[in-house]
Each structure stands twice: as structure tokens, then as C-alpha cells.
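Students often ask why inverse folding is considered easier than folding. One informal answer: many sequences map to the same fold, so there is more than one right answer. In these notes we will look at a single instance of the problem. The structure comes first.
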């Protein structure tokens, strides 16, 4: 009886595959020590954003203390999103998982990594909402009516824009070189 049960199970696995509740995913990059360990206040953040996003609506966070993101970590996390999303089968799906959701997931991944490292300040990773009049990071230009969401991180090398959606195009560039109009900034994730 036990042999028959074994054969039945073996055949089931052979024909239908072995079902499992888990998938293998790449490990979340570890937070690295930043060369700038200063803690910033919200006033510093507003002042810094004014030159890059004049007139943008700034959504105030619930946090009071902010810290820059190690540049190497930001680069690694940008690469990681491609591998993680591929492994989990998450792809662009209007509108349940589109640009705003990619940006939210990326911001959350920053916080998760920081929390695991015991960082007691909000990492300077934002969501920004823009008019996608110029291509960036593999997302094409759609004119002034094309609204888009992506991320800004303040690293120890300065502020950078990051396109969190998977693409083989370069997905990270200095905010000073970014050309699309930023009309809203959600600070702190
Ligand atoms: Ca959405």
C-alpha cells in the first residue's frame, strides 16, 4: 500500500509538477555605511527641493529626522528591482501595479533595508509625480498629459532620479539633469 502511494505521488509530481508556496527571490541589498551621516530636518529637505522642483506640491511626512542614502546601495537596489520583479512574476499591470505602485514598492524596499540595519532616521527616498514629456529610464515620452511616478533618492553624492520599473535603459541620473516637470513630491516614501 505504501509503495502504491509512493508511485502515485511520484507520478503526480512528474506530470503536474511539485507545487510549493514559496519562490526563490534575490536577497534585498544590505544598507551600506554612508559617507554623510548627518541627520537632516524637514526644513533642509524643502530648501533642497526648491531648486529642482519649484512650485511642486510637497506632501509633508510624518517623520522629523532624515538621512541620506548610500550611493552604492541606491545603485544596487535599482539593479535588484529587476531581478526581484522577474523572480516574483510582477510586471506592469494597469492600474493595479503601474508606475505609482513601482515607485511605492521601491521606496518601501529602501525603508525595509534601512530598518534591518537599525537606521533610526527616515531615508531620503521620495516618490515624485511628473509630466512625462521626455523619455527617461526606458519609459517613453507621452506629452504634457502623460502623468508618471518614479523616485528620487538623496545619496551621499547628491540627489538622483531613479526609474523603478524594469528596463535595460539607464535608470538612474542626477536630479539636476532630469528634464520632466515635477509637480508633486511625497517625502519619506
Ligand atoms: Ca496604480
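Output (designed amino acids):
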Amino acid at each position: 500500500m505504501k509503495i502504491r502511494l509512493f508511485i502515485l505521488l511520484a507520478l503526480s509530481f512528474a506530470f503536474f509538477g511539485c507545487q510549493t508556496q514559496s519562490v526563490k527571490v534575490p536577497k534585498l541589498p544590505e544598507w551600506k555605511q554612508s559617507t554623510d551621516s548627518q541627520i537632516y530636518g524637514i526644513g533642509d529637505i524643502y530648501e533642497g527641493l526648491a531648486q529642482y522642483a519649484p512650485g511642486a506640491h510637497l506632501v509633508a511626512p510624518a517623520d522629523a529626522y532624515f538621512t541620506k542614502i548610500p550611493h552604492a546601495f541606491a545603485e544596487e537596489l535599482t539593479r535588484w528591482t529587476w531581478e526581484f520583479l522577474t523572480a516574483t512574476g510582477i510586471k506592469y499591470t494597469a492600474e493595479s501595479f503601474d508606475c505609482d505602485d513601482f515607485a511605492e514598492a521601491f521606496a518601501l524596499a529602501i525603508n525595509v533595508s534601512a530598518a534591518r540595519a537599525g537606521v533610526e532616521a527616515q531615508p531620503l527616498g521620495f516618490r515624485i509625480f511628473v509630466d512625462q514629456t521626455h523619455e527617461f529610464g526606458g519609459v517613453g515620452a507621452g506629452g504634457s498629459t502623460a502623468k508618471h511616478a518614479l523616485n528620487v533618492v538623496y545619496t551621499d553624492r547628491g540627489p538622483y532620479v531613479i526609474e523603478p520599473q524594469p528596463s535595460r535603459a539607464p535608470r538612474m541620473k542626477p536630479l539636476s539633469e532630469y528634464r520632466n516637470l515635477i509637480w508633486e513630491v511625497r517625502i519619506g516614501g
